[in-house]
Design a protein that fits this description.
- There is one protein chain.
- This protein has 284 residues and is of the alpha/beta class.
- The chain has a single domain (3-283), classed as NAD(P)-binding Rossmann-like Domain (Rossmann fold), CATH 3.40.50.
- It is built from eleven helices and nine strands.
- A nine-stranded mixed sheet has the order 2-1-5-4-3-6-7-8-9, with helices on both faces.
Amino acid sequence: MCKRWSISGAEPGAQSGARLMASTRSVVWITGASSGIGEALAYRYARADAALVLSSRREDELRRVASGCPGVPVSIVPLDLGRPETMVDAAERAIELAGAVDVMVHNGGLSQRASAVETVYAVDDLMMRTNYLGPVALTKALLPHMIARRRGHFVVVTSVLGRVGMPNRSSYCASKFALDGFFRALRLEVSPGGIDVTLVMPGFVRTNIAHNALTGNGRPAAADDPDIVKGMSPEACADRIFAAVSARRRDVYVGGMKEHAALLANRWAPRVLDSILQARARKK
């Protein structure tokens, strides 16, 4: 079984952060770790003998994931990315429990299924806080720690829709475009100090993102998306991300040919792509 800690304090007999860092293990912090890509990444990094910090809103699910990571230290720090003002405390707690953070995987987030005119402003606000402001606040809370150590790696799971606009995803696209832009600029600032940034653009991956996506009034869509159902497995996606991070790649696309074609068309034939996406939206 994993050694586990919660945000409320270490379990009896738990090692201190200083003792954990006496080993050569890297410490990898993953948000959105209770399911999907984040869960698969936790298992992949555990197989690579990394110490883990796992975060999401659902502490019970984090403990389930931790139980599947035998042989490595696992710290549990529940957090809600939609509350950026809590990220400083979360970062301090993660460093206290694990001793350090070497790799920060920004994976948690929300999606959307509604047109702009149907979407109330509260949904736009929540989407930006969860997908953009939360990760940015967490990054700024960790930066002094990484700068002082002259090492660190931010792995940012954006989306193909952080480059390509999509009907009925306006708020989601806005948050992912913002995330992409922030970390591209941050990379230029921090890379001379030994800190890497890898931007990951997943296509369709078989997760619960469509079921959990917000409709215009803020309620979950609770419906399947055929493209996601037929998409890449989270495990295959995690393997690709792990390889890209290990190689210190700047940008990596992870997905099928359809999404890759959309990225290329967005650059070389944007009007054609617009027509295709509009036709798909009308059909749905």
